[in-house]
Amino acid sequence: MKCKVVGTSVPRKDGIEKATGKAPFVADMRVPGCWEGAVIGSPVPHGILKGFEKDPSFDWSKVVFLTAKDLKGKNFVHMIRDDFPILAEERITYATQGLALVAAPDEETLKGALKAVKPIIEPLTPVLSIEDSLTKVAVIWGEDNILDEYRIDRGDLEKGFAEADLIVEGTYRTGLHEHVYLETQGMMAIPKEDGTLEVVGSMQCPYYVHGALVQSLGWEPERVRVRQAATGGGFGGKEDFPSAIALWVANLSLASGKPVRLIYDRSDDLKGTPKRHPSRTRIKAGVKKDGTLTALQIEFILDGGAFTTMSRVVLQRGTLHAHGCYRVPNVSIHSMAVATNMVPSGAYRGFGAPQSLFAIERHMDKIADLLGMDPLDVRLKNVLKAGDYMPCGQELKLPVFAEDVLLKAAELSDYRRKRAEYAKGTGRVRRGIGISLAMHGGGFTGAGETNMGTMVKIDFDGERFNVHASSTDMGQGIATVHPMIAAEALHVPYDVVFSPRPDTSVTPNSGPTVASRSTMYVGRVVQEAAKNVIAELGDFLKAKHGQATFSDGFFETPNGRFSVLEAAKACFGERGEFKVLGTLPPGCTGEWDQDAFRGEAYKDYSWIAQAIEVEVDTDTFEVQPVKATVVAEIGKAVHPVLVEGQVHGGLLQAIGWSHIEDMTLTSEGHISAEHLNAYLIPTTIDTPEWNVEILEPATCQVGPHGAKGLGELPMDGGAPAFVAAVQSAVGVFGTEVPLTGEKLFKLLEEKGC
Amino acid sequence: MRIQMTVNGKVMEADVHPLRPLLRVLREDLGLTGTKEGCGEGECGACSIMMDGLLVNACCVPAIQAAGSEIFTIEGLGDDANPDQLQVSFVDEGAVHCGFCTPGMIMASRALLEEVPEPTLDQVRVALSGNLCRCTGYEKIYRAVDKAVKLGYTKTFKPRTNRCDKREPQFSKEEEGRYFSPRSLSEALNVLAEHPDCRLLAGGTDILPDIKNGKGEPRKVLNLFGVPELHGVELEGDVIRIKACTTNGEIIRSSLCREHLPALVEASARSGAPAIQNRATVGGNLANASGAADLPVILLALDARVRLASAKGTRTMTLKEFMPSYRKNACEAGEILESIEIPVPARGSRQRYFKRGSRKALTLSRVSLAMYLEEEDGVVKTFRMAAGSMSPLPMRLHKTEEAVIGKPLSQVVELASKAAYDEVNPRKSPSYRKRITSNLVRRFFEELQA
User: Fold this and answer.
1) Which of A89, A330, A496, B331 would bridge A68 by S-S if both were Cys, CB 3.0 to 4.6 A apart?
2) Nearest Cβ partner for A233 among B94, B98, B436
3) Aldehyde oxidase/xanthine dehydrogenase a/b hammerhead domain: which residues (chain A) (predicted)?
4) Which of A510, A507, A482 lies closest to A497 in space, CA to CA?
5) Fold identical between A31-124+182-233+238-272 and A279-445+595-750?
6) Do the chains contact at B91 and A20, CB–CB below 8 Å?
């Protein structure tokens, strides 16, 4: 059936309020009597907190000052493993870690208080890198610094290497990557007279925040209400950390009896919030002369920072994407997330996959080099097809579009001709083109979606339908996409369906806004809820008119024909309310054995290929992305303009990460880039021309109209294509990102250029 | 301090600290929260607004300088019920994602369209280069601007009048004698004679971020930006005089500079993005005496001198004399940098400014180089070269100059390149920066011969 709404590019629901500056971000909200809160962060990455030196000349009665022992309830931020304290008690394990909280009636007083207190710390030797952690410069987590570890083995590795004509080894690294959502993190807590607490702020996952508050405070769930404010970008950065800020403002608010807000300054946000895990990947591959992979041994290590937070699941996804889009009969993958004295690494678009995919994609280029083949041909030789098996044992039963996107990207970018032409390049400015292939498993890993219990509510208020899902719109457009899906399924105009910002007192738990799941999985549940609306209205009409059948968007009854909107109005008029729930039907996830780490890791994968062209100025070692051709297979583009925007924006983040977004830990254990004049993200001038094509075969059996996950996909393969393009231009093989101008210079110098 | 401003056509009043960023005045004192804070230090553009017809970052404008100005913010374009065409185009073209950069992005687009009604794509990209967006990859934003233009948006523009033009700030008792906002040079110099401990405030693009970052707030401030005699570019016989509070934006727009000083225009355009360029001044850039500044580098190569003024009179000196050491300038108590004088470049002379930043726009220099050359019959007659970002202060490369002067142009490429390589002595990343330096010097001479 032809869709009326899905597949069109309707104006987004929150467009005008954002374009007029009216959208309520948390810093825009005025709550009378609201205090300002702040966290006192550790100046050192590792140490023992001995206490605080408080200036007695400051009037401490004017403010609230809290240390770990003053916290209400338990001192942990509930996440995967509850090892992340709200405030450090004795041991400090990263610079900026929260040591104490302060709230004051106004900013001046707050500043005065912050100046009048100093933590007393005995510093310890910090663990500042993956190598430091592995060699146990200090043991800072558990007995061995290993936060989590996975192994995947399939086939016979020794046999695979024995069959190979060539063994190719390589080590690849990726650096810290900061989200730079344009709106910094911020939360406000408002205590209510009835003893409940309302928390409002910038967040991706209202129920994570709610869960963290309830678990730590030990309160009944109903006593806490969490509302999402308009959220100025997330990209994973507002997945876990808002829970910590929420607990800070909640404790300050409970101690002061006042509403308290804490809006991060950009510099504090850069220094103190989670970033993409740095990684080190070692790969040993066995290949035949014709490029066929016979064996693959991968060691994938993530720098998790000081606490587990999201590392376990980031590591899982990185591990399950580590072999890339290739068929390998004999494979062994060993992965670890290790602890360091760095701010806990967290979720960032791609969630571990961009790191491991960077390594395998670069390694495919290396294999191509050594065999004298084109990188495209080595990929085509091994590309996954339907019926192939993944290292985790998953058989790809559904159609696979890896080859399709790769060939299409090569064609649209004129890859082969340009590659040959650019190889002859001389002169100051050299052009290059690189290609890469990536995939992304939609939704949670393994059985996560089934275990989630995703629930969506659709209600009708007399005029309009409201789709209540805890999926947050942080810019990606889900508050437009869910109403589109619902409008289609309800056979009503888009204009009468809305998706309010989540509020845990109203919105059911449809899970966090992560893992490219909101269209594919939550969108499916929206569709299910809409089906239930039709059924409910059918029952209502049947009771009223004796008979009601639904076809072509209308209910036929003996007393006439009713549109869904008419039926809903009638039903609402009679009952005074109308609400219907939907849940995920069975069969939307596969068989997965979490302990053995085997099975159907993801129900379906999205596929993407990108050909990136760059210009390298050999005088200044500047690399300018010139053109990016992207072909992505995502099942169905529910909103084509939003889809294209996601692809542009995601790939641009990957391009930034590839060469200019440079952040490291200093030898003192501090983040090296503390301002946006040091952490540089692409501007209009650093951006290529785009050419995007979306394939929509709609073969996915889970997502609405065959849609699959999209949000993270454009981040997954951009970096290896970029570094390959630099190689095509100037002939040096980059093994790490960011490939800054200075690193490029060193590579050229080593090569004797 | 009590100030009045015309905000979106209405006279508005605020009672605020003289150095309070205009961004906070708008958001917190006037309740206009459409303008956003993304960084508070001029690096993201989320707080872009128009002030007296020019794009500025509201976070970098101190309230004292907003007094009597005409302010145009996102709220002035249209509201939910009646959005303007640019706002609608942003929504229709998918240029709005998270919405946080959007008000600033729209105001930057509006500022461009008021100046250039039918911009090219390159002009749009340059105009928006100080406005970061992390969601869209920018393409949708270009399309939105283009669509608004096609739908006749610029024809809807109406002139805005300032209903409180030149209205002075009213200082409180406590501020009286500490904050000064004179409207003439003689008044400014008299204030300074009496209060030599005033911190001089030009465009504010350094001072406000410094205050925010806890680098100390000046106790006494003399605002020079509103002194008309300190703005402008003039031809005086064989020198071009640029007044100290002339902004980078004024230099870029000056026909005199474009004709005679293209390398200075290039340096101004590569320093900051448009909103910063509209506030940052040439005088501030020199007086701060920082190694990474862009303008001193080209001004050294152009052999500029500076003129200082005090209530007692004026004196001139070389730029090198003016910047004796890092973060120090030669102004004595009661003295200000009044103007810069640049000899009119000889007919047929060549000048270049090269900048290597860590990205293309709104970035500090890793390497900056400036060259000025006159030739006669194929022989180098005059050659001046300066380098920035590689030493505590920008410096002339005298050895390189000497190696080249008097030599036939055809024989100096390698010579100059090697001499410059040897002469610069960067502390950080030396081999990388030396190599870029020698490459760019080679490029300069190769292009001369081409």
Assistant:
1) A89
2) B98
3) 20-125
4) A482
5) yes
6) no
* CA-atom Rg of chain B in angstroms: 23
In CATH, the number for domain A279-445+595-750 is 3.30.365.10
Angstrom distance (rounded) from CA A474 to CA B200: 42
Q: Look at B35 and A477 and tell me if their CB atoms are within 8 Å.
A: no
CB-CB neighbors (< 8 A) of B417 in chain A: none
User: Scanning the structure block, which residue is given the tokens 């002194």?
Assistant: B227
- The pair of three-digit structure tokens given for residue A590, joined into one six-digit string: 């596969």
Of A541, A515, A472, A28, give the one whose Cα is nearest residue A263. A28
B140 — contact with chain A (CB < 8 Å)? yes
Chain A residue numbers with beta carbons less than 8 Å from the beta carbon of B108 are none
* Dihedral sign of CA atoms A651, A653, A654, A659 in order: positive
Q: Are strands A166-174 and A736-737 parallel, antiparallel or unpaired?
A: parallel
Domains (range + CATH), chain B: 2-156 (3.10.20.30), 179-223 (3.30.43), 230-343 (3.30.465.10), 368-449 (3.30.390.50)
pLDDT tens readout for residues A384-416: 999 999 999 999 999 999 999 999 999 999 999
Yes or no, beta carbons of B135 and A645 under 8 Å apart: yes
| Disruptive mutation site among B134, B413, B417 for chain A (greatest number of A CBs within 10 Å) | B134
Most A-contacting residue of B96, B276, B428, B434 (CB-CB within 10 A), to test interface:
B96
- Under 8 Å between Cβ of B343 and B318: no
The ranges assigned to domains in chain A are 15-22+448-583, 31-124+182-233+238-272, 279-445+595-750
The answer to whether the beta carbons of residues A445 and A419 sit under 8 Å apart is no
As averages over each run of 10 residues, the pLDDT of chain A (753 residues) reads 91 98 98 98 98 98 98 96 97 98 97 98 98 98 98 98 98 98 98 98 98 98 98 98 98 98 98 98 98 98 98 98 98 98 98 98 98 98 98 97 98 98 95 98 95 96 98 98 98 98 98 97 98 98 97 96 98 98 95 96 98 98 98 98 98 98 96 97 98 97 97 98 98 98 97 84
- Candidate from B36, B94, B130 with C-beta closest to A645: B94
Q: Which chain A residue shows the shortest CA-CA distance from B358?
A: A660
Spatial separation of the C-alpha atoms in residues A370 and A359, rounded to whole Å: 16
Cα A61–Cα A65–Cα A69 angle in degrees, nearest 5: 130
**CB–CB of A683 and B273 under 8 A?**
yes
CB contact under 8 A, B36 and A477: no
Position A528, amino acid: E
Beta strands across the sheet bearing B10-15: B10-15, B2-7, B70-72, B48-51, B54-57
Smallest Cα distance from A191 to chain B, Å: 23
Chosen from A106, A662, A683, A745 to mutate, greatest number of chain B CBs within 10 A: A683
SS3 A147: strand
Q: Which of residues 353-372 of B touch A (CB under 8 A)?
A: 354, 356, 358-364, 366-367
Neighbours of A570 (CB within 10 A): 16
Q: Is B123 on the interface with A (CB under 8 A)?
A: no
Instruction: Name the fold adopted by A31-124+182-233+238-272.
Output: Aldehyde Oxidoreductase; domain 4 (3.30.365)
Chain B contact set for A180 (CB, 8 A): 132, 134
Q: Among A28, A684, A685, A692, pick the best mutation site for testing chain B contact (most B Cβ within 10 A).
A: A684
pLDDT value at position A1?
Answer: 59
The encoded tokens of residue B296 equal 């001193």
CATH topology of domain A15-22+448-583: Aldehyde Oxidoreductase; domain 4 (3.30.365)
Distance CA A420, CA A72 (A): 66
Is the pLDDT at B384 greater than 80? The verdict is yes
Cα distances from B179 to residues A511, B147, B200, B223, B224, in angstroms, run 55, 46, 10, 8, 11
